[in-house]
Design brief:
Elements (H helix, E strand, L loop, with lengths): L2 E6 L17 E5 L4 E6 L3 E6 L3 E6 L6 E6 L2 E6 L3 E10 L5 E9 L11 E5 L11 H5 L12 H4 L4 H14 L12 E3 L16 E11 L2 E10 L5 E2 L11 E4 L3 E2 L8 E9 L22 H19 L1
Parallel strand pairs: 2-10, 3-9, 4-10
Antiparallel strand pairs: 1-5, 4-7, 5-8, 6-7, 8-9, 11-12, 12-13, 13-17, 14-16, 15-17
Length: 311
């Protein structure tokens, strides 16, 4: 299903001026189950959400549903009846999805106006008012010296968090991706040359996507076997300055088979993948741990290249 993607600047809610103090707000808890948001034709319904999201609207209802966003709110207005349809709200920073099931019906006589909806995380207390002006005013302030940050509370290494998040984005349905605070997707250079990444193996490498958390980057690189035999994948054969490297699969099947492709997740510190490839030299030579046969094969290949260069 194709979607029209609309950006929604949905930050912390400033309730003053958006809704009156006496107007009720329906609280919906996001617990990875679709949230029902009924609509009435001709009436506008407001959805408040405490995060930056993109809105995916199916093309089939694009002409009958007006979607706007402003000041931390999403405005939905149906011009005609709409059958049950699912909208996707995607967190700009983490990529996590929130699913809304909408359906628009004609207004009935004496029907009250629809209440605004506020979406909260499943573990957020119902009475907590994160939309108060005081919280919003301090939302962008830098933490003080005594403030405990997410970095101090983190128990899992950043490289593990990044690798797990990247693998989930590529290999599981997006609705099941575990959101991670602080992870942002970063731009990736097109046609990044990766011929020096695995020089000892007959593989074709292509960078797919990259994410950043704190001072570390993870880049997902697709590897495709170009030879007729099976290949064993050894992280020590990777050439570059990496904090960690993880293969999705330990082997590659012969070219042309379904198993001839996999992904390697490369974690770098302080810079992206493009700046971590050769000729940058890592402080530790991982090739020293390879079996003698593999090292000899690479040395022979280097001598052949030097001979060709001399000619």
């Amino acid at each position: 299903m194709k979607h029209l993607v609309l950006p929604a600047l949905a930050g912390l809610l400033l309730s003053t001026g958006l809704i009156s103090a006496s107007q009720a707000v329906e609280i919906l808890r996001w617990e990875r189950l679709p949230l029902a948001v009924p609509l009435v034709v001709g009436q506008e319904r407001v959805v408040f959400i405490d995060r930056n999201v993109r809105i995916g609207v199916p093309e089939s209802i694009g002409e009958h549903l007006r979607v706007q966003s402003a000041g931390g709110a999403i405005y939905l207005r149906a011009s005609e009846p709409i059958p049950p349809t699912r909208l996707q709200l995607q967190d700009v920073e983490s990529g996590a999805l929130i699913l809304l099931d909408i359906a628009a019906e004609p207004a009935k006589a004496g029907q009250a106006l629809l209440e605004p909806v506020r979406i909260v995380e499943g573990d957020e207390p119902a009475g907590r008012r994160r939309d108060q002006a005081g919280d919003s005013a301090n939302a962008d302030e830098e933490p003080g010296p005594g403030t405990q940050t997410s970095t101090a509370r983190r128990t899992t290494p950043v490289s593990v968090v990044l690798t797990r998040y990247a693998a989930q984005n590529l290999y599981v349905p997006l609705r099941t991706v575990e959101p991670v605070a602080g992870i942002v997707r970063v731009s990736l250079r097109r046609n990044l040359a990766l011929s020096s990444l695995l020089p000892t193996l007959p593989v074709r490498a292509r960078a797919l996507a990259a994410w950043r958390l704190e001072d570390q980057w993870v880049t997902a690189v697709r590897l495709t076997n170009t030879a007729a035999g099976w290949l064993d994948l050894d992280p020590r054969a990777l050439q570059g300055d990496f904090v960690a490297a993880t293969y999705q699969h330990p082997t590659l099947g012969p070219a042309g088979r379904s198993a001839d492709t996999t992904v390697v997740y490369l974690v770098t510190r302080g810079r992206g993948l493009a700046e971590s490839l050769l000729p940058v030299v890592a402080p530790i030579d991982a090739m020293a741990n390879l079996p003698p046969a593999a090292v000899a094969g690479q040395a022979e290949g280097s001598r052949e290249k030097e001979a060709r260069d001399e000619k």
